[in-house]
Structure formats: structure tokens, C-alpha cells
Amino acid sequence: MHVHFLDPYRQLPSPVHALDGRVKFVLAVAFILTVSLTPFGAWPVYLLLLSIMLSVEILSGLGVGYVLRRASLALPFVLAAFPLLFTTPGTVLLKLPLGTWTLALTAEGALRFANVAVKSWLSVQAAIVLASSTPFPDLLLAMRAVRIPRLLVAMFGLMWRYLFVLVDEALRLMRARAARSGLVRQPRHTAGRLRPGGSLAWRARVAGGMAGSLFLRAVDRSDRIYVAMLSRGYDGEVRSFTLQPVSSGARVTLVAGLMVLGLLWLSGTLVWG
Amino acid sequence: MFNRPAPMHLPDGFLSTLVSIVFWVISVLTLAYALRRAGKDLGERQLPLMGVLAAAIFAGQMLNFSVTGGTSGHLLGAAIATILVGPWPAVIVMTTVVSIQALIFQDGGLLALGANLFNMAVVGVAVSYFVYTSLHRVAPQRPWSTLVGGFVAAWSSIFIASLSAALQLAISGTSPANIAVPAMAGIHALIGVGEGMITVGALTFLLATRRDLLVREQAGSRGGVGVWIFGLGIALVLAVLSPLASANPDGLEWVARQKGFLEAARAPLYNLIPDYVLPGVSNEALATILAGVAGTLIVFSVTLGVAYLRRSRKNTV
Amino acid sequence: MHHSIDVHDLVFSYPDGHPALRGVSFGIAPGEKVAIVGPNGAGKSTLLLHLNGILRGAGRVSVCGQVLSDQTLGPIRSAVGMVFQDPDDQLFSPTVFDDVAFGPMYQGLPEPEVRARVTTALADVGMAGRVNRVSHHLSSGEKKRIAIATVLAMEPEVLVLDEPTAGLDPRARRDLIRLLRELPQTMLVSTHDLRMVQELFLRTIVMDEGVVCSDGPTADLLAAPDVLQAHGLEVP
Predict the structure, then answer these.
(1) Domain containing C219: what range?
(2) Does residue B236 share a domain with residue B162?
(3) Residue A244 near chain C (CB below 8 Å)
(4) Pick from C28, C143, C122: which is nearest to C79 by CA?
(5) Each residue of A105-132: pLDDT tens digit?
(6) Are residues B233 and B311 both part of a single domain?
């Protein structure tokens, strides 16, 4: 079985896909930084940033629907900011009596909550577009380009490579467990005495055993990988090709993108900062 | 399909820029040191072992068991990583796991990654190490010390890390401490039990099949003292700070004070930009002009891009 | 003329005391293609791991005239291309290109030369179009062939393969057998696949319980069903 669905990369012919991964990586991070630095209440700036994001999504062929769907998975965390609605002082919009307390929803609170939600929403879209339009090996090159140590980049590469192998094994373990987890139809006279699913402790032990088995296989596999590496001359040092220079077109895009983001940040800060 | 509740992976937008950057710096420094230490502790085998272990932890997070009530417990992995490969390699393993989760699966933000790494790869590992070695030393040869140590280490790593996350949210002004701390602590006290149980299950299995894997860490315990002290220290700090922060009767005032502190820190930076940047031109006007320029550039490049796209689509058709 | 592989009185026990090799001796001439067969636990895989110094036992191992020692590990690992049973263990890099380039890179070759080796090796195994693929998108047959390419890129004198046809569907197996027939290198293959042995290998060594039980023409072996049965094998 192939766990392809784990890999977010979708190969499409688009200028976004074709753009150098290193440039995309820097622009994505710059975008998220700009979003983070945009002051509260700078709605026109948020709007412009959103329009940039939507344009990129359309340009990339991934489609706005796809990106927004994936973005909604990260949404639940927004609840953490929920209290802001009620704890920020200001003009009260709504009063909600809750037992002995009264929750006062303020306009300022709503604004702050909206700010957090928008920042979060914009940032996650940038990350999604980056991951979906860039093959992972190119992301590794991007990491090397920003001077992340080779050992760590090699680790990322190994983890990603064996992610699929091990998730496959984990799914097989889960399926084997499911196959053995049949529900017995209880004859009436034993009703209530057979507990389907077993006790919590038992289930935890089974899951733990599966985890242990997974780790054991991982350690054994790492031994075999090490032997394979040694056989091909591995000497403990991580070696990689020198990075190709960035094309002029990609460089222009990088500079232009950073300029746009810089201008947006500046205008936001001047007015609302 | 993989609905993974990840209440500790903070997305972007929830932490202030300043907090994000501060924790980035801390995490990068810790990681740099860990990279050097790991080389000495594990030797040549480190690369494949750590890489595949990181993959196993991620895969292990997919194993779940349904806790009554519908929420699933799942594995974070800091404790088991620390027990299997020692603290410094575990920092690298957890860094890899959390980073890939953020980058590829958007589990946690990219700017917030520094803070998430601090919570899970630094605090999580340090606390695991501190708790596990302390308990294990009580009876090093007996299996129960491994299992009990593993359980408490796993639970503590999750619990203390969640306190750290809650305080980061509070300092950023996103969630008042008197709500964030109890909420995070409460949820993760429960999740920690699940983590503890899975860790114990895994340790039981490994004790039975490959005891040598566990024993090899006990002898020597390299990297020990520093990590142990840090683990103890951070656990104490967070455990003391959190109830203080949340017990503040007017949690709002605490947040406001924090925000004021941050305003004060930011003020010098923004004082670099006076009320008007160009003589005679007010900031509003300037901002409008800049935004207009930016907007024009955007429209221009989008038009170019669409034209390019249509051309390349026509060519591939 | 030196033997490509010369093993003399090899003895090896695992740390837990289990004696895996109890005095193994044989020689393989350049260009020979030899099969090693025997039941599970005979010590075949253990023996293979001695040929490039992963395991070190008592006795002498020589590869292409060089005696295996700490100093000669590097050149010997270049000369012996080892292909293991599970290709997922050998394809550990993010892309096919990175994997095939790994060997030449660690041989210290300059980058243009490494690229040339990758192109040649992939072409040799018929996987030229797969250069930028990621390993988990490949079928097991394709992975097997790329695993072979990863060692071919090092331009070894000897190819050693452990169970090359295990886990392959009939078509992939057929393709692999064809490939093995075409490759010019000296070859030593450990396998359970006696039909492949019959097709490709003129000489077969039988191992059981850590010793060599028979070493001679394949035809002779396959004509002696009692010998085969004694060592857990079946007439193909």
C-alpha cells in the first residue's frame, strides 16, 4: 500500500511550481513575517496580503478551494484566542449571562480575535502553497541555502524518506489490530458482561506494544541502512553537491516579492503602528 | 483523514513577533549545541538512527487508541526518544519531527516553529530526561523503574511543555494567562496520561525484546548533568510561574501589563520612524502612495503570471 | 592472475555466541558468476557481509588481490558492490539521483564525474528516466534495479547480491534476471531461487550450518536431488 496521500506535493505546470524552491521558501517566510508584523487593525494591508495569497493560489493551479480546505484543518486552534472576545476592555456589544457570570463581548475583543484569526489564516495558506508546489528535495536545497547545517538537512531527508515506509508499517499494524477487533454479538444472557473494545488499560497496552514494535523495526532498519551506507563508502561526514546558482529570473522574483512585502509592512506600520 | 488534534503545536498568528523571534534564538542556540554533542555521543551511526527514529515517532503518532469520550490519545515522543538515544540526540530527533510537521503538514506555524521547538524539543526532552533518570536510578536493574520512570517522564514532558506554550500565548497577549494556563494544563494533564500509557507499552515491548537498546543509555548517561539541571530548573520555573500567572485575579491586567512591556520594547524600534518620513509629506499620504505602488506591482505581476500560465497551458495542451 | 574473491578459512561467531561461519573457503575467478544456496540460517548473509568488511572474522578475505584489513576497507568497498535484500534499506536518499550519486561522491570524485557515473549506471539498469523521482513512488522491481545502479555507479569489479529476486512479481523477476545476465561484472549471488540459478550460474556453492558443503558445476548439483534435499533445497 502506498501512503501517497501523505505527500502534499502536487505536480502541476505553473510558474509557481517552476519557481526555484529556495526563492519560494524565502518568500513564504517573508510573507508570514510580514503578516506577523502587520499591526492590529491594518485591514487594508491584510486585504492586500490576502489578494496576493489568492492570486498565488490561482496562479499555481492548486486552486483556492484546495488551499482553503487544507487551511481549515488548522482552524480549531483559533479557539485558544476565543477568550479575547470577552476579556478585552472596550465598548460592550453583547452580554451573555452564564450562570453567575456575565460575559461581555466587546468590539475591541472582536477586533483582536479577528486579527489573530486573519493572521493565522493567511500564514497557514502560505505554508500550504509552499509545501504543495515544491518537491521536498527542493525544500531541502532551500534549507541548505539558508545555511541550515548539513547534518540536520540530511536528517530531515532521512525522516521524510522513511516516513512513508514506517507509516505504511504503522497502518499495517493498525489494520491487523482492527482485523482482530471483531465485535461479538452478545447473546442476551451475557449482555453487559462482555465489554467490546476491552479496558482502557488493555487498549493502551496494545497501542503501546504496536508503538514499541514500530520503534524496534525502525532501529533494526536503521542498522541495515547504516550497513548499506558503509558499503557505499560512508565515512561519517555528510557530503552534498554544491548548490546551483539561482537563475536571474528567480532572483528578480525574489527581489520583487521582498519589495512588495516590505512596502506593505512599511505602509501598515506608518499608519497603524 | 488524519484528524490529529495537536493542541501543543502553535500555529502562526498566535504569538507576537517578538516572542517568536526570542524563542527562535533560544532554540537555534540549543540545537547548534545539540548537533555538536550528538556527534560525540552516538558516533557515526547517529545519522540513520536519528533520522529513522524521527520517522518512527511521526508514524507512531498515527497509532491511537480511543479514550472513552471520543478524543484519541497519541504519542508526542519526546520521552521515548530521550530514553532510546539520550537527551542531545533526542533534541535533534524531536526538532526534525516538529519541523517536518510544521513545514509539510502545517502542524504548527513556521514563524512559531522556534517556540514549538522550545516547548517540545527542548523542554519536552529536558524534563523527560530529568524525570526518567531520577526515577530510574532508584532501582536501575529492575524493570519497574524503567516503566514507572517512563510513564512519569512522558506525562511530565507533555504537561510541562504545555505550560510553556500557555505562557507563550499569554505573553503574546493572545490568550489571558488565567484561561490559557488552566486550559492547556488541564487538557494536557489528560493527554499526558495517554502519552504515558503508550510510552509504557512501548517500553514493555522493548524490555522484552531488545533490552540492550534501553540498557545502553543507562550506562554512561552522557550529556547528563547539564540537561538534568535544566530539566529540573525549567520544570520548577514553569510549574511555579503558571499558577502565579493564572491566579492573578485580574488576568486581563496581567496581560495588559505584558502588552505594555512589549509596547515599551517596541517603542524604540518604531521611534526610528518619526511622524513623517519625508519632510512635508504626512505619513498617511506616504503610506497611501506606498500601498499604491505595492498594489500596482501586484497587479502587474499577477497579469504577467496569468499570461505566462495561459501560454504554458496552451503549449502543453 | 588474482582471484576476484578469495576466502580462506573464515570463522565468525555473533556476540551472543552463535557460530555463524565455521571455516569457509572458496575462490572466485574474474568474470565468474557463482551462486550460493542453502537453507535459512546457513550463514549465507553473514558470509556476504564479510566480503566488504562489514563483519570481520578470523581467517583471510582477499578482494582483487588485496587482503582485507583496516587500511584496505576503502578500496575494497569500492571494488565490491553489495546489493542487499530490501531495496528500501539502500535507497535512503530523497531522490534517485542522490542515491546513485552517493557512492561516487564518497569515492571522492569531482562533481561532473559523479553526474556522468549516475547517468551511465541508470542507463545500464534501464532506469534512465527515473533520475529525479522519489523512491517511495517506485515499484519494487524498479527499486531493485536502482539499488543495483547505486553500486554500479562505483564501477565495482565484483557484484554481490543477497536474494535479488525475493519479493518480485514474475515480470519484475524476469527483467532482473535479464539484467543480471547482461552485466559483465564478476558476480556472487546468494539465493533461494534455484530456477534462476539454473539459468544464470554455471557454478554453485552449497552452504549449510556455517560450512561449504559442495562447490561445483550447477548442473551436477541439480542432478543430485538427495544432496539438495539434505540441505533444505528442492529440485527446480
Answers:
(1) 5-230
(2) yes
(3) no
(4) C28
(5) 888 888 888 899 999 999 999 999 999 9
(6) no
User: d(Cα C175, Cα C140) in Å, to the nearest integer?
Assistant: 12
| Segment among A67-71, A93-97, C89-93, C225-229 with least mean pLDDT | A93-97
Interface test with C, best of A165, A219, A231 (most C CBs within 10 A): A231
Domain containing residue C52: CATH number = 3.40.50.300
Higher pLDDT, C107 or A235: C107
Grid cell for residue B119 = 516547548
What gap in Å lies between CA B195 and CA B152, rounded to an integer?
A: 10
Residues B79 and B22 reside in one and the same domain: yes
Q: Which residue has the higher pLDDT, B267 or C143?
A: C143
Contacts of B260 (CB under 8 A, 6+ apart): none
Query: Cβ C89–A221 below 8 Å, yes or no?
Result: yes
In a domain, B124, yes or no: yes
Residues B227 and B248 in one domain: yes
Q: In this complex, is the C-beta atom of A154 within 8 Å of any C-beta atom belonging to chain B? A: yes
**Subunits with 3+ C-beta pairs closer than 8 A to C:** A
> What does the pLDDT read at residue B220?
44
Q: Using alpha carbons only, how large is chain C's radius of gyration in Å?
A: 18
Rounded to an integer, what distance in angstroms lies between the CA atom of residue A193 and that of residue B80? Answer: 36
Give the Cα-Cα-Cα angle A196, A201, A207 (nearest 5 degrees): 85
Phi, psi values for residue C102, rounded to 5°: -55, -55
- Is residue B137 within 8 angstroms of chain A, CB to CB? no
Query: Does residue B273 lie within any of the structural domains?
Result: no
The answer to whether the beta carbons of residues A112 and A39 sit under 8 Å apart is no
Considering the domain architecture, whether residues B40 and B143 belong to the same structural domain is answered as yes
- Which residue in chain A is spatially nearest to C112 when comparing CA positions? A241
Distance in Å, alpha carbon of A254 to nearest chain B alpha carbon: 12
Sign of CA dihedral C80, C81, C83, C84: positive
Q: In this predicted model, what pLDDT tens digit does every residue of C202-235 receive, in sequence order?
A: 999 999 999 999 999 999 988 888 888 888 888 8
A239 CB within 8 Å of a chain C CB: yes
Q: Which three cell numbers stand for residue A142?
A: 532551500
The confidence score (pLDDT) of residue B249 equals 42
Q: Do the domain assignments include residue C236? A: no
Question: What angle (nearest 5°) sits at the alpha carbon of residue A78, between those of residues A75 and A83?
Answer: 160
Q: Give the cell for residue B111.
A: 514563524
- pLDDT for position A192: 55
Q: What domain count does chain B have?
A: 2
Q: How many Å apart are CA A152 and CA A142, to the nearest integer? A: 13
In a domain? residue B33? yes
Tell whether B6 is covered by a domain. Answer: no
Both B156 and B213 in one domain: the answer is yes
The verdict on B64 and B137 lying in the same domain is yes
How far B137 CA sits from the closest chain A CA (Å)? 23
A160 pLDDT band, cuts 50/70/90, is very high
Reported as a pLDDT band with limits 50, 70 and 90, residue A212 is confident
Alpha helix segments (H runs only) across chain A: 15-18, 21-37, 43-59, 64-72, 84-87, 107-133, 136-145, 150-179, 200-231, 248-272
User: How far apart are alpha carbons B21 and B172 in whole angstroms?
Assistant: 12
Name the CA dihedral angle for C60, C61, C67, C70, rounded to a multiple of 10 degrees: -90
**Count of domains for chain C:** 1
What's B130's domain CATH number? Answer: 1.10.1760.20
For residues C143-157, one letter each, b for 16 or more C-beta atoms within 10 angstroms of the residue's C-beta and e for the rest, the string is bbbbbbbbbbbbbbb
Domain that holds residue B306: 279-317
Length of chain B: 317
**Given this model, what pLDDT does residue B235 score?**
81
Residue C95 lies in a domain: yes
Rg (CA), chain B: 24
- Name beta bridge partners: A94: A105
